[in-house]
Each structure stands twice: as structure tokens, then as C-alpha cells.
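Internal tracking record. Fields below are filled automatically when a chain is submitted to the structure queue. Please do not edit lines marked as system-generated. If the sequence contains nonstandard residues, flag them in the REMARKS field before resubmitting.
Queue: standard
Priority: normal
Entity type: single polypeptide chain
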Amino acid sequence: MKPAPEVQGLAAHGHAWWALDLLDNRYAALHGFRVLAILSVVQYHVTWTFAEARVPMNRALADASLRVFFGMDLFFLLSGFLIGSILLRSLDTSGTLDLRRFYLRRIFRTFPPYYVVLAYLALITPMTEARLRHLPYEVLYATNFVSASSADVVMFWGWSLALEEQFYLVAPGLFFVLHKLKTDGARVALLVALALGALGRRLWMLYMMGPWTDFTLYSRLYFRTPTRYDAIVWGVLLAFIYQRWGEPIRAALRPPAARAAVAIPSLALLWVLSNTHMFGSEHTHLVRVLAWGTLSSAMYYGLVLLLLPGEGFLARFLAAPVFRRIGTLGYGVYLVHIPVCEVMLQPIARTLLARRVPMTVVWVASLVAVLAASLVLAYVLHLLIEKPALRLRQAIAG
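SYSTEM-GENERATED OUTPUT FOLLOWS
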């Protein structure tokens, strides 16, 4: 899950050693949108951790929390959009892709904090035979090609980071092909076909390789790159559309009626995604296969298009400086929030429940505590690891 480290430009906020190297502010409202994604992923994992630890939860509260399962797809879509915007600008300004610079910037942005956290967890985690066998996969950003069980890998949540790194590996080749195509229609058609290919593979596996349990569906379809890359490609398509036709889109969306016409379908899809149980338990697996990366991306499309111009109350609110600061720490929060959940939640919950604090209050307090601790650790990681790596990146790659 995670917030992806996808923005190319970083702006130093002051020169003090404790200052953040803030993310690029070209699409300011997306910082707030990313923070909402962070919140959705962390709250999901708080509930999941309670379930794993057998902490008694109110059923309605647990169900409401677990219904918000589509935050990770927002990270994927934003990664595709922002990396796509960067590579499209590079092609438009220079007519070519500077692969050395592209990969150096990605490596210095993503690798150092990931490997520090992975190494630390590998040192403090009991290393079973399965974890030792799978550790090379984690080192090579291939976590999503081995068992997704927490008993078999050190950082099971690294599957999403692996998927994004695999996308970075092939992205320049994809954009080279797009650049060589003769028409914009052909480029759009290729991206749509690629994105629908992941959905097609999910559907084919669902009907041809069953029967499925919840665990096998997640482990073989949700975490694997061939069935989960589509949200990133939809993000690339959104970047292409906005680069080519951004001004007409912005003009068309200025009337309130036009904005409502875009918002209503997205809000309807949001309601559907939050209420997938209404289709019945016999259709649960089909609904999930359709939702992962497809319905979720369609829902986010309208919302992102409304936010990109930075107009309106909601866009201005999400562009508030505090969200840019939290978004800058988002990658670190994603790296550390699962260990924080595992260490903090059970003692907090059991202490508060022993004092007869209502479970809703316990859950909210636990979420706030995990977010606060994760932000503190992410800030330390930013100062000690990310900032030096970014300075080195600037010296080497510019």
C-alpha cells in the first residue's frame, strides 16, 4: 500500500537539518488525496491487526473499516499518473528518455529507506526456513511472487512496493512504444488494452482455476503483478489524457453542472465499492475481481480530474500545506506502520478495554496512536536516510 515515492521533483523547505525535503507541488490537491489514501490503508490494517490478535471488535465497526479496501489502488493510480506525467514531459521537451537519470532518481528515492527497514526487521524477526528462503525475493523487490503470508516473509506489505518497482523497470519501454505510435488514438487504445488485460486475466483465472477461498483469491490474484498492474496503467492513461487535452478538460469542467456530472458517477462507484456485500455472498469473489484496479480506478478518475485544476473548496482544502508535509512522509509511514501496529495495538486495546472504554473509542485511539508513531518514525527515517540519499541523488543525477 502504500504511498508511492513517485514524484520526481523535490523542493527543499528551508536549509535546516530538521526540515523536510517536500514533494513537488505541481498537483497540490493530490497531496491531500494521498493522505486520505494513507489514512484508509492504515485504518484497514488497524482492524486487520485486531482480528489477527483476536481482540474483540464490534462487528459493525469492523465491517465498516474493512469495506474501505480500495486505498491501495489510489496509490497505484497516482503512481502511474505522476510517473507518466514525468516521462511525457521528458519526451515532449527533449524527444527522448534519459534512462540513466530516470533510474538513478528512482533508486535513490525508493531503495535506501526500504532496505534500511527490511534489514532492521530481518534482524529482529525470528527467521524461519520460509522467511530465509524468501528473503532474496524481498531484497530484489519480488515479494509479490512468493507467499503473501506474514509467516513466510519479513515484510509481507512489501508486495505493493515490489509491484511499483517492477512498473518502474518497464515504464521507459512502454513510453518508448507510445512515442513511436503514430496517433493519439493508437496510444489510448494500447493503454486501455493493457489495463483491461489485467482484468481479463483475473476473470479468466477466477472461472478457470477455481475453486477459490478468500485466502487463495488474495494470494494468487490480489498480490501478483500480472493481475494487479492495471491501476498503474490507468494512471498512465490519465496522465496522457491530461497532458494532451488538459486545457479543454479544465474548461469543460468549470460549469457546476459539468462537475456534478463527473462527480456523481464517481460517488456512485464509491458507494458500490463500499457496499459490495449487497451483491450477495455467492458473488463476493467476482465483485472483488471487478473492483480491484477496475471499478476502483473508474471511481478515482472522476475525482482526480476534478482535483487537478486546483479549483473549488475541496481542491483548495486538499492542497493545504499540512497535507504536503504528511505526504512527504507517506512512503516512510507505509514502510513502518505494520510493525507499529503489531507492537502497539494489542497492549493499547487490552488496557483500554480492561477499563471498559467503548470499542469505538479504543479503535479511534489506536488509529491515532499508530498514525502518530508511524509519522514520528517516518520523520526520523526521512532525516537520517531519505534526505542524505536525496542529496546524493541530486549530486549524481541532477
